[in-house]
Amino acid sequence: MNLKRIDARLSVSPQIEVADVATLKAAGYRAIICNRPDGEGADQPTFQEIETAARAAGLETRYLPVKSGMVLDEDAKSFGAAMEELPGPVLAYCRTGTRSATLWSLNEAAHHKPVPDILAATKAAGYDMNGVARRIANGGRTPTDQADASFGVVIVGAGAAGIAVAASLKARKHDLDIAVIDPADIHYYQPGWTMVGGGIFSPEDTARTMGSLIPSGVTWIKAAVAAFEPKDNAVILDGCRVVKYDRLVVCPGLKLDWDRIEGLEETLGRNGVTSNYRYDLAPYTWQLVQSLKKGRALFTQPPMPIKCAGAPQKAMYLSADHWFREGVLKDIDIHFCNAGGVLFGVKDYVPALMEYVKKYDATLDFFHNLVAVDGPARTATFAVSPPDGTPSRVTMEFDMMHVCPPQTAPDFIRVSPLADAAGWIDVDQATLRHKSFDNIWSLGDVMNAPNAKTAAAARKQAPTVAENVVADIEGRSPLAQYDGYGSCPLTVERGKIVLAEFGYGGTLLPSFPRWILDGRKPTRLAWFLKERMLPPIYWKAMLRGKEWLAKPKPLSATPAE
C-alpha cells in the first residue's frame, strides 16, 4: 500500500486490497473513498469486498466511481461533498491515485483555493496536476495546443498487443521514438488463467512486472487515457496531461462488464461463484472443482464478442475431467449455458468437442443468457431467447458456477471519435489502419475486425501493424495484411487439446501440416504446445519482437479506404 498525503484530511493511493483495511484502521484513518469503478482491472477486488472489510473495522466508506480519464466537474463536487460528510482522515483510492488527486484538485479550485497551492500539495504527494491547472484556466476543458510530451509513435495499452507491437516496431526501426501508455504495474498472461482454474498452472506463473517487459528504448507513461483528440494528434491522460504523436496505435483491451449481471459482483469469489476471467478468482475455480463431489455445476457464456470464445467451455472440460478422474462425475449435473446458439463458431471443431460433451454428460443450454445471480440462495437466472420461440426467464439452482462476464470496449474508447457505432475502433480489416484517420492503427481485442479476440490473434496482428506503421513513416503504402488468424486451444481434458486455428469467415489456418498435428482432433502434442511451449513463446518471443510463425503476410490487394 502506497499512501500519499495531500493534506491533513486526505491521503490518496493506488488500488488497495482487503488486507490493507486493518492497516488503515491502525494508522488512524476513519473513512475510505473508492473512485475506481468495479471491473476495471483483472486483478481488482470489488468495492463490496473493501466495504465489508471496512465495516468490520469500523470505517465508513463511499463509492464514487469515476471512469478512467473521465473526471467531470460534477464528480469533483460529489467528492467534495463526501469529504465534508465523512470523518477524517480519509483515504481515497483509484487505480493509481491520479483520479482521486484530480478530484481533490478540481474541488479545491471550485472553492477558490489558489492553483499554485493545489499544484504544490499534489506535487509533494507525487502527482503532476499541471494539466488540471490548464483545464481550470481553460474553463473546464483540457487544451491540446501544447503538449506535456511528444513522440513519433504512441501506443495506448501495454497488454499482449501493445508490448508485442512496440517490440516489433523496435525490431524494424531501432531508433523510433515510442511511448507506451498504461497505468498497470503488472502484466498478465491471461491465456494461462484457464490452466490456473484447472489446477495446472499457479497464478504466479501468469504474472510479470510491467517494467520488466517494456522494450528497451521505449518510454513507459504510467497513466490512464482520458480522451483522444485525433484532429490535433493528441491523447489526453488522467490528470489532464497531453501527449502528442505523429502516429498512434490503440490496443487497450476489453472491459469486463461484471455489473451488467444483477447480483454478480456481490457474490464473486464466494457462494460457489467464480470466474477464470479474473486473476484472483481462477484459484477459487480450482478450489471449487476439487471440493465438489455432487450437485449441479453451471458454466456460462454471454453474448459475443468476448475474449477467447472457447474459454468458458475450457473451464467446463477441465472441471469435468477432474470429476471423471475422481469418480464423482456421475453425481454432478453439468450445464453449459450459452447465450449463443452453437457450441463453437467454427464448425470443423464441433464434432470433437461434442464427443467430450457426451463423455461428461453435459447439458447444452443454448440461448441462455445469465442476467442475475443470488449467491446466498445459490440460484442463477437466465433470459432464454430461442430464435423460434417465446422469450422467457429460467432460474436454475447451482452448487458451483463459473461465469464468463459480458465484455465491451472500454468507456474511453466507446465515446471517442475513433469508435464505430458499436463502440469498437473502426479499422480496415486487412491493414488494421483506421478508416478515418490515416496515422492511427488498432489491434487486439478493441478493434472491429471480425476475428476471434485471442492473444494468438494479437501475435499475428502486431507484426502487421509494425510493418505498416514503418512503411508509412518511410512514405510508402501499406505492405502487410492480417488474415483474421486466431487460435483457441480447447483443453478438452488434462493432457489433450483440440487446437482450433482459423481466420476470417471460419477458414482453417493450421500452423502445422495435419500429419504433424490435426487441430480438429484432441491430441497430446497440442497439450504440450499449450502447457510447455506457448508460455515461453509469449514471454520470450512475442513480447520481444521475435515473430516465430507470425511473420506478416504481404498485402495482396489494395484495402478499401
Automatic annotation (TrEMBL):
**Essential cofactor(s):** FAD
Annotated ranges, domain Beta-lactamase hydrolase-like protein phosphatase-like: 4-109
Source organism: Acuticoccus mangrovi
Ranges of residues in domain FAD/NAD(P)-binding: 153-268
Instruction: Tell me the superkingdom of the source.
Output: Bacteria
Q: Note the InterPro entries from the entry.
A: BLH_phosphatase-like, FAD/NAD-bd_sf, FAD/NAD-binding_dom, Prot-tyrosine_phosphatase-like, Sulphide_quinone_reductase
For this entry, list what GO says about its biological process.
sulfide oxidation, using sulfide:quinone oxidoreductase
Q: Molecular function terms in GO for this entry? A: FAD binding; hydrolase activity; quinone binding; sulfide:quinone oxidoreductase activity
- NCBIfam families on file: TIGR01244 family sulfur transferase
Is Transit peptide there in the keyword field?
Answer: yes
Against Pfam families, the record matches this protein to: BLH_phosphatase, Pyr_redox_2
Keywords noted in UniProt: FAD, Flavoprotein, Oxidoreductase, Quinone, Transit peptide
Q: Which protein is depicted?
A: TIGR01244 family phosphatase
CDD domains, per database record: PTP-bact (cd14503)
